[in-house]
Description:
Blueprint: H1 17-22, H2 26-35, H3 42-51, H4 58-70, E1 74-82, E2 85-92, H5 106-130, H6 132-142, H7 153-171
Antiparallel strand pairs: 1-2
Amino acid sequence: MSSTGDHRLEDIAVRDTRVSDAIDEPMRAMILDILAEEALTAGDVHERLEERGIDRTENTVRHHINELRDAGLVDVVRFEEGRGGTTKYYEANTIVLSYSLPESTDPAVEEMIDAIEPKMSEALATLTEEFDAEIDEIVADMQPCEHCRDQKYETYVLLTVLRRAFVRVRREP
């Protein structure tokens, strides 16, 4: 099935299997949301979930935090020694956004896209011209076999760079 000239690609949905597998359990997305705000212990996360109406044992919460940590979405950022042992503080390093824009916002979004498109073209040109070898190397590492060369690996690499740069810029004061 081929695309017609009238139809155009408007968006890219990113599905990182590492992320999607880890947050397949809805409570884990909530935990990521909670840990995006500040470093907390498993007990603190348990309390925040209870405040949101989620009734789980602290051990269950701890299990989900460990699954998120094992997937690389949560880091242990601090240890505190106490009477009963060591307390770990966790913080999210990834934010999961599960939203969709209302169709009524299309004109405003199009206007913003038109305004930023030249700067995006410039950023992409910089990336592909200055980091072509690095991008090719990453893409080669991503390809599981020679028959997968038609996948959009380069697009994924570029989106990852832009997405992470966006996060870094948004977090700076």
